[in-house]
Amino acid sequence: MLKFYGAHINGGIEKALLYSEKYDFNSAQIMPTAPIRWALKDIDTGKLEQTISGIDKGKLKLKKILIHGIYLINLARKEKQKFHLSKVSLLNYLNYADFLQRTIESYGLDIEILGVCFHPGSAIDLDEQEGLVRVAEGLDWIMEEYGGSIKLLLESSAGAGNVLGDKLEELAEMRELSKYSKRIGFVLDTQHMWASGYDWRRPENLFSEIEKVLQFENIKAIHLNDTKTELGSRKDRHDNLFDGLLGEGAVKEIVKREELENIPLIMETPDLGSEKGIRREIEKIKSII
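^ that's the sequence the OP posted. Answer follows.
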């Protein structure tokens, strides 16, 4: 039975803690800076300790936090400036995640930071294999600069253009090419994988393939999204749970899989932009677990 589920929450850790109690979910994804601005400075942690110190441990519902990197990141770029900006942004997010985990632990709270997930990027000025190597080079630089234990998590992509990570084998190769492979994991996205041709309506074959190529022990979260686009469309278009082409039946099959019992399923659906929508989407997932 699924143990961990939740939603992407706009507004950072403070709002994630508030909404998890208000709408009854135990996992959340946050993005601590603006999604389309380079996160090149230390992230403000001024309110963090005050917020965490005020939490009633007995009422704490949030158990898993996934941090999502900004959308500008592209570790597959040959061009040096954007490549370096991407590395520094991820390094700052890792440092923030490390501070968050240490602060949580110092107050005796049972919350795990799953890692920092990000889209590997697009090989705009490189071929596919060169792009995979470039991503690994970026991962190595970041891990050499970072002194903590939080993992970087490669997210599966929808596959438009020269985007890397639309195939499970590409995700696995980026990890294996890095000298720090044990500190790198994965986040799968149901909509992105569907758009790349992976059919969630046939879970037996798909789950066997995931285990063979990536191993479920390396998957730290799954973005549970329905889809507006056809199988293999290569288009990143999320839909609300049960409303898209996956539908309630396929979502139910995903949720009940034994392999996902301890892997958080975190939604990134359109309705999550409002409190009313958060309530509606959480009620949907609670109705099938």
